[in-house]
Amino acid sequence: AARAACLPPAAPAPFARRLPPAPPPAAAITLAELRHFFRNPARFFCRERLDLLLHEGEEKVPDREPLTLNALERHEFGGLLLELPDEGALPELASRLQAKGVLPPGSGGEALLHGIWRQIAPLRAARHRQVGDAVPASRVIDLDLGTDLSLTGELDHSYPWGLLRARPGRLTAAFLLSCWLDHLAACAMAPGQGIATVLIGRGEREEVAMGNYRPVAEAAPLLAGLVALRRKGEGRPLPFFPRAAHLYASELAGGKGEDGARRAAWNLLRRPAFGSTAPPEGDDPYVRKVFGCEPLSDRVVAAEFATLAAEVFGPLLAHLEKPA
Which H helix or E strand runs over 91? Predict the structure, then answer.
């Protein structure tokens, strides 16, 4: 009895009653909705099916003008600078950001922005080597995936040969998956045309990291399968955690056994990825609400997680090339 008293209390079941019937699946979804689902299926289920919003961290309203930039702000500004035509547009951007109160005022803020510009210069150079002075276009997506389902949307940064996707940070699992969905849509819209997608970001030592997705012959069926997962995720929460799933599939592809891959995914769910400031996926309030503190401790959940990880990231990794 004394030993039992020392144990932590059992977590309550996340849902005390049977859920109401799910609404009929939508006949058409957008590419943006598909990306949103795969970022966090547990959050998607809670918000869309249950209309449940959970506290995801304290957002403090600043009571004074900023004097420095945090890591997230530097990342966001880096994304803005990647899209600037040239350095001559920096003063106008600085004025707009300072007017919004998100960039320190005066010359100090301008100096911070110029510093970020210098940091992303290698990324801009890598992008220029890929596309030169070609002007990107938008590609309209309108796909009939069968079974009364269509996928619509728009792909920016499109070129005759395919897509280019660049970010000021690392090529994270979420970024790779989002780009993979775009790539599948582009390939399905132009079958047999050799569509590729070039990826540009940073490596572990802040160097330029690149990769590309090869053309996918079976893009439409793969995309239909991923859309089917979203439909399934409308009815019940799916145990898919992008960072852990990417690691699991990568370990399997690298020759590690299933036990080792699952152990690596379990550990990543409980601690941040190396060099990452993002909290572990297992600490996400929606994941904890639906799957508890140790999602992969349940054999049924762990087995479905492994199946989903292989289904989503297996084809992605098979078509992803990185320079030697």
Answer: helix 90-99
For residue 84, CA distances in Å to 37, 73, 93 come to 30, 17, 9
Torsion of CA 246, 229, 55, 32, to 10 degrees: 90
Distances (CA, A) of 233 to 110, 198, 229, 320: 45, 30, 6, 26
Residues making up the chain, counted from first to last? 324
Rounded to two decimals, the pTM is 0.87
pLDDT digits (tens, 9 = 90+) for 178-195: 999 999 999 999 999 999
The CA-CA-CA angle for residues 122, 125, 128, to 5°, reads 155
- Letter string b/e over residues 171-209, b meaning 16 or more CB atoms within 10 A of that residue's CB: bbbbbbbbbbbbbbbbbbbeeeeebbbbbbbbeeeeeeb
| pLDDT value of position 79 | 86
The interaxial angle of helices 242-253 and 258-270, nearest 10 deg, is 150
Non-local CB neighbours of 217 within 8 Å, separated by 6+ positions: 191, 192
Q: Which of 221, 174, 164 is nearest to 195 (CA)?
A: 164
Give the DSSP H/E element, type plus range, for residue 209.
strand 208-213
Half-sphere exposure of 106 (CA within 13 A, CB side): 5
Scanning the structure block, which residue is given the tokens 């999602």? 295
Q: Can you tell me whether residue 95 is helix, strand or coil?
A: helix
For the segment 271-280, the average pLDDT, to the nearest whole number, is 74
243, amino acid identity: R
